[in-house]
Amino acid sequence: MKEKKAISGPVYDARTLGAGKMGILGLQHMFAMFGATVLVPTLTGLSVSATLLFAGLGTLLFHLITKGKIPAFLGSSFAFLAGYFAIAPNGERELLPYACVGVAVAGLMYVILSAFFKIFGTKKVMRFFPPIVTGPIIIAIGLTLSASAITNCSKNWLIAGFAILVVIGFNMWGKGMTKIIPILLGVISSYVFAIIIDPAERTAVASAFNDASWVGLPFQWEDTVFGLFGGKVDKQLLVTSVITIVPLSLATMVEHIGDVCAISSTCKRNYMDDPGLHRTLLGDGLATTMAALFGAPANTTYGENTGVLALSKVYDPRVIRIAAVFAIVFSFCPKFAALIAAMPVATIGGVSMVLYGMISAVGVRNVVENKVDFSNNRNVIIAALILVLAIGIKYYNASGAIQIGSISLSGLAVASVVGILLNAILPGKDYDFEQESEGSTSVNFKV
């Protein structure tokens, strides 16, 4: 297959709009990523402030590595939720740094893949990450998270149902910006609804807000990976974390490539060639490792912000960098983080129910849009083993993992490794990555 030429298109320069309008556009981009980005620390127990800080810093690092050419914002990745829950199922503060070690190493996998892209080229590398592997893994990620959504919803189904209806309503029938930020709107509206109908929620929110200061540091040293080494380190848990979480990077790396395809299509520029996928993967991977080391979630390129690009028609990367600066500034306000931390559990449950279902649906789309042939026994075997291993091991016992020697392996880790190996060994590989087709990846974990 011949590679297509780089797409040409006009360069949109936001400076002609003036500083005021550029600032407003930057705020719009920050709020577009906000609802989904802060939901990750809310679900896992990580710091909201650290999340915002390293979303901003990670975005600036990404822009530095990609020569400031791509209007991409890096926010929290949902694909690693299962990994956090495997290591710290109830958001235990003392266990989260161990999970962050696994995520930090997963970020380094991007660096390795970046080198492979540089040396061997996109098409050769992507043959090892076809939709028959990534699709079922993504489906399994959503399904293995589903039980936690139901548990949270059961705290108050009225509040959870309200959140679900708002998210669905704006996702289906929203106009303009409201269609791009349904998660944020669902969280805010359900939060307000809970405060109105439940006096206990009003008291909890008021207490959290009053106890927090206006200015403070975004993270504490003991919550970082570095804080682990001030005392006794559980080496077995460290190894388990790495083995459990690193395979999840398979899905997130393909998600990254899909987002770069989408941004290229939106901006009418071929960013896969210039600055190149090797640079974008390197930027995303290093941003993820940096964030994880300081107790923040993994980063990923955000589809919501691609939607804002399409809405505003302003593709200047400087606007994204302004949004990153706003995120950094907000990270130094503990009162802001306190309001997020006080979010009703049922609100989290309602939003996450839609979100986890959407993750699985994205996996189905990944398979359908790429026309995976299930009349081919090879494909059936790969998909079947990935799904059964991932979900079966998850619910095999209370830990949701199997023990191999002293190492505990999650279902997703086992399924990912088995899927990659089967795809490499079994004859009949027919996947050919099309660089400029968004359908070639079709991965986006955001609603």
Write up what this structure looks like.
With 447 residues, the protein is mainly α. The protein is 66% helix and 3% strand. The protein is built from 19 helices and four strands. The strands form two sheets. It has a two-stranded antiparallel sheet with strand order 1-2. A two-stranded antiparallel sheet has the order 3-4. A hairpin with a 2-residue loop joins strand 3 and strand 4. Helix 1 packs antiparallel against helix 14 and helix 10 runs antiparallel to helix 16. It is globular. The two termini are 33 Å apart.
Which runs of at least 5 residues are low in confidence (pLDDT < 50)? 1-12, 436-443
Q: Helices and strands, in N-to-C order?
A: HHEHHHHHHHHHHHEHHHHHEEH
Identify the strand order in the major beta sheet: 1-2
Shape: globular
In whole angstroms, the N-to-C terminal distance is 33 Å
Number of strands: 4
Q: Compute the CA-based radius of gyration.
A: 21 Å
Helical element count? 19
Q: Give the amount of beta strand, in percent.
A: under 5%
